[in-house]
Amino acid sequence: MGSDLSTISESRSQPQSEIDATYKSRELEGIVDLFFYRRIGFALAKFFARLNFTPTAVTLIGGLFGVVAGHLYFYQALALNLIGMLFHVAANIFDNADGQLARLTNQQSRTGRILDPVVDHIIWLSVYVNLALRLQMGGFSGAIWILALAAGVSHGLQAGAADYCRNAYLYFGKGRGDFDSVSRLQQEYRQYAWDTGAWPKLLLRLYLNAMHEQELILPGVKRLRETTESNFSGALPAWFQSRYRTLVLPTFKWWSLLMTNTRMLVLLVLFLIHQPVWYFWVELTAGNLLLVYLIFRQEKISRSLVQVLTAQKDSA
């Protein structure tokens, strides 16, 4: 799910079709993802496919690695922190492998789509809690928990917005899959009862909360989806997909800075210089400033496309 400090454009060379089929979209993959996580994840996906593992099982295994990594960040010893970083890398490998396994074996599901970010949030909750405990026991006041909470909320907003824009790109720019909305999810949510369908209802409740947050942060994307549904009864036309890709793809080199690989790199550097408290400040300052800039840029793109579609409809 993480992306590197930079994204790379679609290659014009002959693709490795088998592994490419397990990507969401190659041009959204970071360099580290393409040449490390995705390759190892693909090998693991083929291994788990032979063992008849489900993507959900792989997701949960990765979650265990991530929670352990967060606990190892609690200790002052640099060696344990570095071991924790290796566990975190393992968690990312499994995070890649679960989606690749789903696409390789055609097991994509709404449950997997929801569970993946839930597990990711649990991993980072472990990281934040253990870092705050470490700092408090190292002499910081109880106010460190306020700082950790603010940084954690910022992290959630940044990651949610990045994920929403990536899904929007796959829908508007590549014509892939459904683009969920609060209104659609609410209809599905009401179909389940707590006494007979507690698990899917709980997952949908979590997903609804995340989707509501994303639509509040990026209302222009929601408006663009509603406009395209009104203008185009079937698939999005090729000209619109091309225009969306041209406008939005350059922003992903910046969105990638708000994803997992960048955060792990920052953590690693701060462990090496024994200043993990700065991680919270990086989230609150640089992370949020970048988020505001990217929201402004995405909303400007969405408004311009809505205007084009509205003018086209009015002149028809």
Reconstruct the topology from this structure:
Elements: H1 17-20, H2 31-50, H3 55-72, H4 78-104, H5 110-137, H6 144-173, H7 182-190, H8 198-217, H9 219-231, H10 238-248, H11 252-255, H12 260-272, H13 277-315
Helix pairs in contact: 2-4, 3-4, 3-5, 4-12, 5-6, 5-8, 6-8, 6-13, 7-8, 8-9, 9-13
Question: What's the mean pLDDT score?
Answer: 90
By secondary-structure content and strand pairing, the structural class works out as mainly alpha
CATH fold descriptor: Four Helix Bundle (Hemerythrin (Met), subunit A)
The counted number of beta strands is 0
Helix content estimate:
over 70%
Task: Specify the CATH class.
Answer: Mainly Alpha
N-to-C span? 41 Å
Query: Which quaternary structure do these chains form?
Result: single chain
Biggest sheet statistics: none
Count of all domains: 1
What's the SSE pattern?
Answer: HHHHHHHHHHHHH
Number of helices: 13
Radius of gyration over C-alpha positions, nearest whole angstrom: 20 Å
The CATH architecture comes to Up-down Bundle
CATH homologous superfamily annotation: CDP-alcohol phosphotransferase transmembrane (TM) domain
Unreliable sequence segments: 1-15
Q: What would you call the shape?
A: globular
Beta-strand percentage range: under 5%
